[in-house]
Inverse folding.
C-alpha cells in the first residue's frame, strides 16, 4: 500500500547497469491525463525491453520519440483494478479489472509500481477466467504472437523492412515451426497456431518436452540440444523464430518454396540465399492494442490458450526477477506480484 495518501512504492532506475540498479522506493502516485485511467496494479509482467532499458537502451529502435531520462520506472505489462478515470474515457469505470501493454513501443509504461496512469486505448477488461498474475504475463508476449501470426492490426511502417508485415494464413494444411517454443512469445505462438488448426513443431530444450506436447499440444518436438531442426524437418510453411541471433538464418532450410520465416528479433539474412530458396523473411514491432488484447482475453477466458508462469516475485524483489530472467531457459513468463 502507499506509504501516504499521495505516494506509492515503485521500482526506479537512477542509473543503468545490472539488476542491482533496480531500486524499490517511495514516489508520487501519477495523475491520469485525458484518455487515461489510474490503475491499482496487482501484478506486472517482465519482458526483455525491461532489461534493455535497465542496461542503457533508452529509445526503441526506429522510434522517433524522445528517449527516457532517469530516474524512470520500467515495465509495460500489468494487470490491476481501475482506481480513477480521467476525461475522455468511456470504456472503463472505477472497479473494472483490466490488463494491458502500456505505451509500447517505448519505455514510458511505468508499470513496476503500485499505481500506473494507463492509456485507456492500451487496456482490455481482464478475463475473469485468469488471475492477475496470468493476465499480467499475457500482453506483450501474447500481442507479439498475435501480430506476427494472426493480425498485424496497424499500418505503422516496420523499422527493419520496407514492406509491411503480413501474417501467413494458418489452417489444417499449414505446418508451423516455433523456435524457442517454451518462452513467452513462443508458448503463445504455439497455442495460437494450434487454435487455427495448424500442425506445430516445437523447438526447445528437452526439459520442456512434456510441457509443450502434453500441456500445450505441440504435434512434434525437437530438442535443439541434441539435433538441429534443419536436419530433421523440411517443407515447413512457416517458421516463427523467437530466439534470433546469428544462427537464425539456418532455419530457412526447413522451409518449402513459398514459405516464410518470421524472426521476432531481427537477424542477419542473406538476400541472395532467400531468393534462391524461394522464401520470404518478414517481421514487425509489437504495438499496444487494447482491441486485440480483448480478443486474446476471450481466448484466455475460455481456456483456448493459457499463460504459463515460470516464477513470481514481489515488487520489492524485482532485482531477483531480473536475475532469474538473466539465467534464461524460461518457461512462459516471469511476473511481479504487487497485491
Amino acid at each position: 500500500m502507499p506509504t501516504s495518501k499521495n505516494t506509492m512504492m515503485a521500482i526506479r532506475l537512477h542509473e543503468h547497469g545490472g539488476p542491482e540498479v533496480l531500486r524499490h522506493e517511495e514516489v508520487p502516485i501519477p495523475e491520469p491525463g485525458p484518455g487515461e485511467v489510474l490503475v491499482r496494479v496487482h501484478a506486472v509482467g517482465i519482458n526483455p525491453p525491461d532489461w534493455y532499458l535497465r542496461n542503457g537502451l533508452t529509445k526503441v529502435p526506429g522510434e522517433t520519440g524522445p528517449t527516457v531520462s532517469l530516474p524512470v520506472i520500467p515495465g509495460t505489462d500489468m494487470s490491476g483494478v481501475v482506481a480513477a478515470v480521467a476525461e475522455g474515457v468511456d470504456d472503463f469505470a472505477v472497479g473494472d479489472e483490466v490488463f494491458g501493454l502500456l505505451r509500447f513501443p517505448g519505455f514510458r509504461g511505468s508499470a513496476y509500481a503500485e499505481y500506473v496512469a494507463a492509456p485507456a486505448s492500451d487496456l482490455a477488461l481482464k478475463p475473469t477466467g485468469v488471475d492477475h498474475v496470468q493476465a499480467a504475463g499475457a500482453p506483450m508476449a501474447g500481442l507479439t504472437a498475435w501480430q506476427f501470426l494472426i493480425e498485424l492490426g496497424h499500418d505503422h511502417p516496420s523499422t527493419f523492412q520496407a514492406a509491411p508485415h503480413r501474417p501467413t494464413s494458418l489452417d489444417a494444411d499449414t505446418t508451423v515451426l516455433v523456435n524457442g517454443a517454451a518462452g513467452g512469445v513462443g508458448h503463445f505462438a504455439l497455442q495460437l497456431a494450434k487454435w487455427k488448426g495448424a500442425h506445430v513443431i516445437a523447438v526447445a530444450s528437452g526439459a520442456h518436452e512434456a510441457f509443450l506436447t502434453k500441456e500445450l499440444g505441440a504435434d512434434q518436438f525437437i530438442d535443439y540440444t541434441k539435433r538441429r531442426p534443419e536436419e530433421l524437418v523440411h517443407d515447413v510453411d512457416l517458421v516463427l523464430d523467437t530466439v534470433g541471433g546469428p544462427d537464425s538464418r539456418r532455419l530457412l532450410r526447413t522451409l518449402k518454396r513459398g514459405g516464410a520465416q518470421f524472426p521476432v528479433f531481427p537477424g542477419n539474412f542473406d538476400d541472395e540465399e532467400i531468393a534462391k530458396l524461394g522464401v520470404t523473411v518478414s517481421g514487425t514491432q509489437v504495438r499496444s492494442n487494447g482491441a486485440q488484447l480483448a480478443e486474446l482475453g476471450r481466448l484466455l477466458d475460455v481456456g483456448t490458450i493459457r499463460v504459463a508462469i515460470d516464477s513470481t516475485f514481489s515488487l520489492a524483489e524485482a532485482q531477483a526477477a531480473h536475475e532469474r530472467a538473466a539465467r534464461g531457459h524460461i518457461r512462459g513468463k516471469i511476473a511481479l506480484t504487487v497485491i
Q: What stands out?
A: The chain has two domains: 7-140+287-337, 167-281. The first strand starts at residue 7 and ends at 13.
